Amino acid sequence: MVASREQSTPPLFDVAVQAILNMSWRPELKVEEIPAPAKIAPFAVAISAEVELNDEELGSGRLVLLHDPAGSASWDGDFRCVTYARADVDPEMVTDPLLTEVGWSWLIDALERNQAEYSSPSGTVTAVSSRSFGGIADDPPRAEVELRASWTPMVATAADVVRNLQAWSELLCLTAGLPPLPDGVVPIAPRRSGTWLR
Question: Which of 79, 103, 111, 125 has the fewest Cβ atoms nearer than 10 Å?
Fold first, then answer.
């Protein structure tokens, strides 16, 4: 967690950090805290995740929660979520002209399905493929989809933060090819690795 030395941590940001610390993640997600950017906002916390199934990494991502108690005109609020998600896909998928639109819909649908109130979403979806030549010509073709996005969550309680975290975890899983959890099914316990700063 990053905070300015001149400012005490706002209670609402403390609530948000505690919501992250206490989050129950899907078992396919391996989540840990990472250093947050220090110059974008007065307060920030960041996490990264790997999506794994049967010991195979399917995708990865990170989420930064920024907070400026004074608000930010460019955010249209005082919190901002910034995310990056990527996953390998079938090489034939990257030729589909709708893939980037579908990738963006994963974010919007995840926010709405989890009833996360938000505004001002923006971002990009990139689909790329690569093929090896010469001495590495035998390597299989690779393709991946990458989403970089941000949105302004409406945060008044810990539950608001949790809804955005649930949406983010769903986004990561969708990007990696895993379906959303059925309605009424929730993870049993938090899965934490790495060091969490308090």
Answer: 125
CA separation for the pair 162, 7 (Å, rounded): 25
Q: Where are the alpha helices (DSSP H) in 121-178?
A: 158-175
Q: How far is CA 192 from CA 18, 181, 183, 195, in A?
A: 13, 20, 24, 8
- For the chain, the residue count is 198
Nearest alpha-carbon partner for 196 in 65, 62, 32 = 32
Strands, DSSP E only, in 131-196? 142-153
Q: Helices 11-21 & 158-175, crossing angle to 10 degrees?
A: 40
Helices 99-113, 158-175: crossing angle, 10 deg rounding: 150
Residue 183 reports pLDDT greater than 90:
no
**45 close to 20: Cβ distance less than 8 angstroms:** yes
